[in-house]
Each structure stands twice: as structure tokens, then as C-alpha cells.
Design a protein that fits this description.
alpha+beta; two-stranded antiparallel sheet; 14% strand; globular
Amino acid sequence: MNDVCDHDNHDDFVMARQRSISTHRARGSGSKQEDPEAVLENAVFWADEVRSLTENVSGALRNTLIDLASVLGDKHRWCLMGGLAAGFHSQPRGTQDVDIAVAGEAELDNLVETARNSGKFKKSRAHALVHKESGVEVELITHEHVKCDADLLSRIIDTAISVNLGGTPVPVASREGVVASKLLRGSYMDLADIQRIIESDGPVDLSGFDLSTEQLTKYNEVEKIAMGS
């Protein structure tokens, strides 16, 4: 595989790398970034930088996400979750794949068909696609697959915000949605992501999400640590 993926948007990616460096410096100094497009570019850029240390490919996550959003558009109910969404709402971090929430198994089947028919993706597992050009895997998260309440995942998708990446609209889970999704599993990495989100912009209002007492207790514990109380 080449060191840099061939892609129509490569020149845009190079420019994005330059913009992202200044954005990263601004965020690292504690200033609030008000341009969501630059913030998303920044989160994806640094995730790609970390991934390239082991995969020897630059821009793979960005190319995958742009192609995915271009193919799916608003024809399906989905949104970006996982490490990229967490990095968008806090400090960028590494990730190997693209995680998206999908509104149920029926929607999943239609989404997979759309992605495969585009010629840019192939199905690799029951709940995963692979971007043919980059080899990046796209994890497809449904409420049936992760065994959570259908209304909760639907709420996460419905409250997503649209942010352009390379001129392509990407539905990104809101900070509340990301935190709610992280509480479903509650792994060490999930709780660390929640802590970084709170540290970046303060406490998260989860009143719009039907979470269990145990999940809310976990959140409150992390909030106390993040707020230094």
C-alpha cells in the first residue's frame, strides 16, 4: 500500500493538515474553538497521524469518512460516534476505525446495500464495512448489536449535528450523545473520553437521554474527577 492514499481530495487534505496544526495549537493552549469544521478537521487529522504510525498510510480516516458521508448522505439515519466524535468534542485522540450509529438492523441492511453499490465499500463482518481504497473498517452500531434501548440510540442519532468535512456534511453525535453512548459500555477508555469532554466544556446535560441509575452514577463519578471536586 502506498505511503499516501491516492484520492481526489488529497490537495484539500494537505491544506487541512496545515490548518489543523494551528487549530491544535489553539486548542492545546486552552482557547475555545468556535469553527466546528476546523475542529472536526483537527480531530480527524490527529487520529490519522496516530494511525499512520502503525499503518503507514496518511489521511485514511479522513478519506473513509468523506466517502462514507458522500455515499450515505441523508438517505439513511446514522451519525458518527466513537473516537472521532469524542475527539471532536474534547481533545483529538487516536483510533483505528470509524464508528457510526445506525437506526436498527433494518436500516443497517439498507445502508450496507447503499455503501456496497457505490463501489467504495465492501462488507467485512455482520456489523462492519471496509473502505476499499484505504482499508479502514467502519463499525456499524445498532441497538440490537450492542443490546441497548432502541429509543436511546435513536435519540443519539436525532440530536447529531451536521459538520462539513472537506465540503461534505457529516452528522456527528452531540457531546451529550457521545457521553450517553460511552456510558452504555463504560470501559476505561469510554470513561476517559467522558472525562476529557467534561474538562473541555464543562458538565454534560443528560436529561434528554433515558439512562439507568448505574450509568448516571458512573457519569457523576467522572464529573467529580473532571471538575476537581
